[in-house]
Design brief:
The chain is mainly alpha-helical. Helices cover 64% and strands 5% of the residues. It has ten helices and six strands; from the N terminus they run ββααααααββαββααα. It has helices spanning 21-41, 49-72, 78-104, 117-137, 142-163, 173-204, 221-226, 244-271, 280-291, 303-307; strands at residues 8-9, 12-13, 213-216, 219-220, 235-236, 241-243. The protein is globular, with a radius of gyration of 27 Å.
C-alpha cells in the first residue's frame, strides 16, 4: 500500500509523522465515526460547543507555546527537553479532545438534499472517478487525488446520514446488529488500535524509551534556596528521574481516560436521544412558576392581581 501521508503541508516538513500513518488513520476513522453518530442521533452529547473550543484553543496554544519556548532555549538547558516533549503531547491530546468535544456538542436537524439520493450517489461516484483518473495519469498529484477521493466519499456519506430523519421508533434486528458492530469498531479503535499505534510510534520513531531521560534527578530547587544558593549543578526542577517511556505511558493512560469519557457520554446521550431539549427560557419560566407556590404548596396570587 502506498504511503498516503504527505511529506509537507504548505512548506512545513511533516515527514517525521509518516511512520505513524496507521495512528493518523485510526484517529481519522474515530473522528469520522463520532461525527456520523452525532448526525444520526441528532441529539447533543455535550451541552456547550464553547467547552470544546476552549479546550482546543487553550490546549493547542499552550502546547505550541511550550514547544516554541523549548526550541528557543539553549540545547544544554535542562528545561528544553521537558518543554518540547510535554508541549508536543499537550498540543496533540488537547487538540483532539477539543475537536471531539465540539463534535459531541452537535445538535443536528434533518438536512434537505438539493438532489435525490440516487443523484447524490451518482455525483459522488463521478467525482471520485475524476480524481482517480487524474491521479492515475499525473503521478505528481496521485497522493493529493487519493485524499480528495477519500474526502469526497466521507463528505457524501456524512451528508446522506445528515439527511436521514430522526428515528423515534425502535430499529430492526438488522439495524441493531449493524449498530452493535459499528460500536465494537469504534471501541476497538479507541481502546486497542490507537493506544497500540501510539506506543509503537512513540517507542520506535520518537525515541520515547527508558534510556531517554527528561530528568536524571538531583536536588530540589527549594532545598537549594534553603541552603542559601540560587542554583547549583545539582539543582533540578524535577528532583527525581523521569524517562520518556514514563511520559509515553502517561499519554497512553490519557487516551484511555478520554475514551472512557466519550464512551459514557455517548451511551447516556443515546438513551436520551428522543427526549426534547429544554430551552433556557422554558427552564426559567418553569423555575419562576415553581417559585410562585406557598410553603404549603399552594399557588400564590400575583401582586398585580391583588391590587386590581
Amino acid at each position: 500500500m502506498p504511503q498516503l501521508l504527505p511529506s509537507s503541508i504548505f512548506f512545513f516538513d511533516i515527514s517525521w509523522i509518516r511512520p505513524g500513518g496507521r495512528l493518523v488513520l485510526a484517529v481519522l476513522l474515530l473522528t469520522v465515526g463520532l461525527l456520523w453518530i452525532m448526525l444520526l442521533m441528532k441529539h447533543p452529547a455535550v451541552k456547550s460547543f464553547k467547552t470544546g473550543a476552549a479546550i482546543f484553543v487553550l490546549g493547542v496554544g499552550g502546547g505550541t507555546s511550550m514547544v516554541i519556548v523549548g526550541r528557543l532555549l539553549d540545547e544544554s538547558s535542562l528545561a528544553r527537553g521537558t518543554l518540547i516533549v510535554n508541549g508536543f503531547m499537550i498540543a496533540w491530546i488537547a487538540g483532539f479532545c477539543g475537536l471531539w468535544t465540539m463534535i459531541l456538542s452537535i445538535n443536528a436537524s434533518q438536512l434537505k438534499l438539493p438532489v435525490s439520493k440516487l443523484q447524490h450517489t451518482g455525483i459522488t461516484i463521478a467525482i471520485m472517478l475524476i480524481f482517480y483518473v487524474i491521479g492515475g495519469f499525473v503521478h505528481n498529484v496521485s497522493v493529493l487525488m487519493a485524499w480528495l477521493a477519500i474526502i469526497t466519499l466521507l463528505t457524501s456519506v456524512s451528508l446522506y446520514i445528515w439527511s436521514l430523519p430522526k428515528r423515534t421508533e425502535d430499529g430492526t434486528w438488522a439495524e441493531v446488529i449493524f449498530g452493535a458492530m459499528a460500536s465494537f469498531v469504534l471501541m476497538a479503535l479507541i481502546y486497542a488500535i490507537i493506544p497500540h499505534e501510539w506506543i509503537t510510534f512513540a517507542t520506535s520513531y520518537l525515541g520515547f524509551t527508558a534510556d531517554a531521560k527528561l530528568s536524571e534527578g538531583g536536588q530540589f530547587i527549594l532545598k537549594t534556596w534553603l541552603d542559601g544558593n540560587f542554583w547549583t549543578k545539582q539543582t533540578r526542577l524535577i528532583p527525581f528521574e523521569v524517562t520518556l517511556e514514563a511520559m509515553q505511558d502517561q499519554a497512553t493512560m490519557a487516551i484511555y481516560v478520554v475514551g472512557a469519557v466519550i464512551n459514557i457520554k455517548l451511551f447516556s446521550a443515546w438513551q436520551k436521544r428522543n427526549d426534547p431539549l429544554q430551552a433556557k427560557d422554558e427552564t426559567q419560566s418553569s423555575e419562576s412558576k415553581l417559585s410562585k407556590l406557598s410553603r404549603f404548596g399552594r399557588p400564590m396570587k400575583s401582586l398585580k392581581a391583588t391590587k386590581a
